[in-house]
Write a structure and sequence with these properties.
about 190 residues; alpha+beta; 4-stranded antiparallel β-sheet; about 25% strand
Length: about 190
């Protein structure tokens, strides 16, 4: 059945008796680093799965999932998932493709973190947020993240993220109103991200 998750909700992904399929909404997948900071690994949206990797590897999940907007999720019990694997080759193939896609994204992210500057990573992340999740009626990014959450996505201190966003705002590249961010000059952001 479909579960409606009001904010804030933390999915119990450490004890995996099945997988969650996101029917609507967005969750942040994060990992607590050694210094106690929450590192956002990725955002999960409609149509994506939570917990499939750990279910297959039979290891405890090392990521937490927290809704950043109201969500609807379907829970598929472990025995049902394993039944699909045994009886449906296409399901197995699709699951493997999903996990391979996650690995490719992780590789790309690792390269970006090691080779791109914080400014490049911020520009890239802002563009990705608009591309993946769209904008609101006023032109601002639909997904409204805190400065701390954006900093966690690009792997920098919150203070550095705030400073860079202010810099982008002063240069007219973006427009800031509270948590709202409007991408004013996407061409320049694209050049900066490369």
């Amino acid at each position: 059945g479909v579960q409606t998750c009001a904010l804030p909700i933390c999915f119990p992904v450490t004890i995996l008796n099945g997988i969650y399929c996101v029917k609507d909404g967005v969750a942040k997948m994060s990992k607590l680093s050694a210094n106690g900071k929450d590192q956002i690994v990725k955002l999960v949206k409609k149509g994506e799965l939570l917990g499939q990797r750990s279910l297959i590897s039979e290891e405890a999940a090392n990521l937490s999932a927290v809704a950043i907007e109201d969500m609807q999720v379907c829970f598929i019990p472990k025995n049902e998932v394993l039944k699909f694997f045994n009886e449906n080759n296409q399901f197995s193939l699709n699951m493997m493709k999903t996990i391979c896609g996650d690995l490719r994204e992780a590789d790309d992210h690792m390269v970006d973190m090691s080779q791109k500057t914080v400014k490049q990573r911020l520009a890239h992340t802002l563009l990705q947020l608009e591309k993946e999740y769209g904008i609101q009626d006023d032109g601002s990014l639909r997904i409204q993240l805190s400065r701390e959450e954006i900093a966690g996505m690009i792997g920098t201190a919150t203070e550095s993220c705030i400073r860079l966003l202010s810099e982008f705002n002063k240069e007219g590249i973006i427009e800031l109103t509270g948590k709202k961010i409007i991408l004013v000059n996407k061409n320049l952001l694209q050049k900066m991200s490369e």
